[in-house]
Design a protein that fits this description.
Strand content: 5-15%
Helix content: 25-40%
CATH class: Alpha Beta
CATH superfamily: NAD(P)-binding Rossmann-like Domain
Order of helices and strands: HEHEHEHEHEHEHHHE
Length: 287
């Protein structure tokens, strides 16, 4: 059975504490560890990936490394997952740098970029991927601090990281932001998360125009359902069980299915692609 068949609902009953870890997921997510084969499309590039410890971030980190890039992974506190991702980067013959901490802090965002510059000398690719979400059935259930945390992690951090990174892009770079199908089709139970994803799409479009003369391209990827630790850690058991069932392909994506899009957007061959949203939604169109 392929890893794609394995993620067809119903999924085994499972719940985790936030932010969630890969080892406790059933089935285990497939990040392309055994299947992604690079062709040196990012040879010599220096990349920063937030949320690179697991899920989409790990899949992108593995793909970037196998395409020839050194990778800095920013993550919150999931040390075991981050070390596992670093192992795959180093097995590809590339340098891995790990920076734990909360990107909701402007100071920490600057530390992430400062570390990348210290280790790599520059930043060629910035992937703003880290995200926080929680499910709430009623507006009155959403605490003020939850709303604030979601915005600080999902959209404010993109501003801080981008502002810090752009001066170190040496006249050419690629910024890739992870938005969501929720930007166009917001889920009522993910109100804070969906609102930030709409903001990310708008941020991407404006930033692409602002940075065009600097030869820095800015795009975003809009995933549909993806099988990552965020799902059992932030959704009720019944939603986890049927996660992805309502999409045309009747399943969520494996993280490895997102990575090729990030690679394409990061390559120099995509030199006229900027301000775009690339949907990876298993057949469900975005508006």
């Amino acid at each position: 059975m392929s890893s794609l068949d394995e993620v067809k609902p119903p999924h085994p009953a499972q719940q985790q504490d936030t932010p969630g870890v890969t080892r406790d997921m059933h089935p285990r997510p497939d990040h392309g560890e055994e299947s992604y084969h690079g062709t040196n499309r990012l040879e010599g590039k220096k990349a920063v990936i937030t949320g690179g410890d697991s899920g989409i971030g790990r899949a992108v980190a593995i793909a970037f490394a196998r395409e020839g890039a050194d990778v800095l992974i920013s993550y919150l506190c999931e040390d075991e997952d981050a070390q596992e991702t670093a192992k795959w980067i180093e097995m590809a013959g590339r340098k891995a740098v790990l920076v734990p901490g909360d990107i909701g802090s402007p100071e920490h965002c600057r530390k992430v970029i400062d570390t990348a510059v210290e280790e790599f000398g520059r930043v060629d690719i910035l992937v703003n991927n880290a995200a926080h979400q929680m499910t709430f059935q009623e507006l009155s259930d959403i605490p003020d601090e939850e709303w604030d945390r979601t915005f600080r992690t999902n959209i404010h951090a993109m501003f801080y990281l981008t502002k810090a990174a752009v001066p170190h892009m040496d006249g050419k770079g690629a910024i890739i932001n992870t938005t969501s199908v929720n930007a166009d089709m917001p889920s009522e139970t993910l109100l804070a998360y969906a609102t930030t994803k709409g903001a990310i799409q708008n941020f991407t479009g404006g930033l692409a125009q602002l940075l065009a003369e600097k030869n820095i391209r800015v795009n975003c990827v809009a995933p549909g359902p993806v099988w990552t630790p965020l799902i059992p850690a932030t959704m009720p058991e019944e939603k986890v069980k049927n996660f992805g069932k309502n999409y045309p392909m009747k399943r969520p994506a494996q993280p490895k299915e997102l990575a090729p899009v990030y690679v394409m957007l990061a390559t120099d061959e995509a030199s006229y692609v900027s301000g775009a949203t690339v949907a990876v939604t298993g057949g469900k169109p975005i508006l």
